[in-house]
């Protein structure tokens, strides 16, 4: 008892002595000139970066904006990881998330800038604008009593004015032909769906087509709706188009795959340094296990698109047609940060059922990684399958023993080169300057009452085929400063003709009008229809 009492008395005294000794050492051995205490000593902190930022903030000769410095530093740190680990500033997070969430707050119109004026192309059914009476062809001249027509306002700035929090109001002044006076509408912004299934339609009596633009939260339900529509029309084989689809949510890709694969077929597996291997198998509840399938991909099909194509290919479930896909085999997790920003960090690699990781190399930096597409073009890969070489060390086999390769995208079962037979400098000039699109808007605007009588792409095209569109268009193009070149026009004539009619049909019937017409000059699509028809025979 006595020794414990002595310890209780002595320990506080010893602790106080050590503190005093520490202060003495700090003042005498780490002192600045003149005996001033050295405030520049860096004491232990959470990490070196925090210590550095604190030192700059407290001791730097000028006042600094710490947050601005951190906003610049974080992306630089991520550059040394991989091309898909990215930082999303708080100001950009809502916009970035919109594509994956599948909706945003707005008034519910599709518009285009025509002669420096916002022209409504489509009004979303059931949306806020339709409810108050906005019509296709209306010109939005003013927003909240501010004139926007003829002011050179960029499309993004128009969208910022029209979009906003759901439940808030925006006043728009509309010019509607033939009236000369503005009509004022007060619109309450609502939830506007951002569709990821662009179109679905029956190509022929037994073949259906679905184009998927992205893998967002609402994609699976949209996909099921599209499938149900096709099946109700005797669809026995389906073409699924992922061309230009850069990916999205992994779980959505898995759910789409599950519709086509029998029970226990491996869809994909993921694995990372901190994540154990996770296998995902089909559960046997898919609605299209007996439906024949063709998948379309190109050099811009990435991530979730490649998961779907890889699962179909490795399980020998259908055909993949087109050109070699992008080659993104990394999985990101979005992690929210305290200030409202977020980090999308690569946490795993995904592997197709045969075991291949299709991620292309990224060791030489982000710039070279994305320039790979241009290198493929220059190398001739878009035009000749023989120009593509694969490493034998990355050879894998499908369920039925066919050879496939990892390390750089999904190579399709049937390669279809890019068609340039109708592409001339004259055509490129027309497209680059938006001449065909602008003519289609003007033609639609001048003939809306007649065009709105047609409810299908077939009927629309039959009518447009009888109109003298090309002669009128050539005059329009010349007025816009595009010099006519007879030989090049003759080469590109069929392509120009189809695109004009497809754009006009889109202005009235949306994508249900555009794609059935445009597909007439789409070689990849035409080959897919041929192969799908053979499956059904």
From TrEMBL:
Q: Where would I find the PDZ domain in this sequence? A: 93-163
Leader sequence residues: none
Gene3D superfamilies attached here? 2-enoyl-CoA Hydratase, Chain A, domain 1, 2.30.42.10, 3.30.750.44
NCBIfam families membership: prc
Q: What is this protein called?
A: S41 family peptidase
Q: Which family does it belong to?
A: Belongs to the peptidase S41A family.
Which organism's genome codes for this protein? Carboxylicivirga mesophila
Q: Which UniProt keywords apply?
A: Hydrolase, Protease, Serine protease
């Amino acid at each position: 008892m006595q020794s414990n009492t002595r310890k209780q008395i002595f320990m506080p005294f010893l602790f106080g002595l050590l503190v005093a000794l520490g202060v003495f050492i700090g003042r005498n051995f780490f002192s600045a000139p003149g005996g001033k205490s050295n405030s520049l000593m860096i004491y232990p902190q959470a990490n070196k970066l925090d210590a550095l930022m604190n030192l700059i903030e407290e001791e730097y000769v000028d006042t600094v904006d710490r947050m601005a410095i951190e906003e610049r530093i974080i992306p630089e740190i991520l550059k040394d990881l991989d091309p898909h680990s990215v930082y999303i500033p708080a100001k950009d997070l809502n916009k970035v998330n919109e594509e994956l969430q599948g909706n945003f707050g707005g008034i519910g119109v599709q518009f285009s800038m025509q002669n420096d004026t916002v022209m409504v192309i489509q009004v979303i059914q059931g949306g806020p604008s339709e409810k108050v009476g906005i019509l296709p062809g209306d010109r939005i001249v003013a927003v909240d009593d501010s004139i926007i027509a003829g002011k050179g306002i960029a499309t993004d700035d128009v969208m910022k004015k029209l979009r906003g929090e759901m439940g808030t109001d925006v006043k728009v002044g509309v010019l509607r032909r033939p009236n000369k006076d503005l009509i004022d509408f007060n619109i309450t912004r609502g939830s506007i769906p951002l569709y990821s299934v662009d179109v679905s339609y029956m190509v022929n009596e037994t073949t259906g087509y679905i184009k998927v633009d992205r893998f967002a939260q609402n994609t699976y339900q949209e996909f099921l709706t599209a499938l149900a529509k096709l099946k109700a029309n005797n669809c026995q084989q389906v073409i699924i188009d992922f061309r230009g689809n850069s990916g999205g949510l992994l779980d959505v890709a898995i759910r789409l795959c599950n519709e086509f694969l029998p029970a226990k077929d491996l869809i994909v597996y993921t694995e990372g340094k901190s994540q154990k291997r996770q296998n995902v198998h089909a559960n046997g509840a898919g609605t299209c296990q007996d439906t024949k399938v063709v998948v379309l991909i190109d050099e811009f099909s990435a991530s979730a698109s490649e998961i779907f194509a890889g699962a179909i290919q490795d399980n020998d479930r259908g055909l993949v047609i087109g050109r070699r896909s992008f080659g993104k085999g990394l999985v990101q997790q979005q992690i929210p940060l305290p200030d409202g920003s977020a980090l999308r960090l690569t946490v795993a690699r995904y592997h197709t059922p045969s075991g291949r990781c299709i991620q292309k190399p990224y060791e030489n930096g982000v710039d070279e990684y994305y320039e790979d597409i241009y290198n493929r073009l220059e190398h001739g890969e878009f035009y000749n399958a023989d120009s593509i070489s694969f490493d034998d060390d990355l050879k894998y086999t499908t369920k039925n023993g066919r050879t496939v390769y990892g390390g750089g995208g999904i190579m399709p079962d049937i390669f279809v080169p890019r068609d340039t037979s109708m592409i001339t400098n004259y055509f490129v000039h027309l497209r680059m300057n938006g001449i065909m699109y602008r003519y289609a808007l003007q033609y639609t605007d001048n003939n809306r009452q007649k065009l709105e009588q047609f409810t299908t792409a077939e009927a629309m095209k039959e009518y447009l085929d009888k109109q003298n569109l090309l002669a009128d268009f050539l005059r329009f193009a010349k007025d816009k400063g595009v010099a006519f070149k007879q030989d090049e026009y003759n080469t590109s004539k069929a392509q120009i003709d189809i695109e004009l009619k497809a754009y006009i049909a889109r202005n009235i019937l949306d994508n249900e009008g555009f794609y059935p017409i445009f597909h007439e000059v789409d070689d990849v699509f035409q080959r897919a229809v041929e192969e799908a028809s053979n499956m059904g025979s």
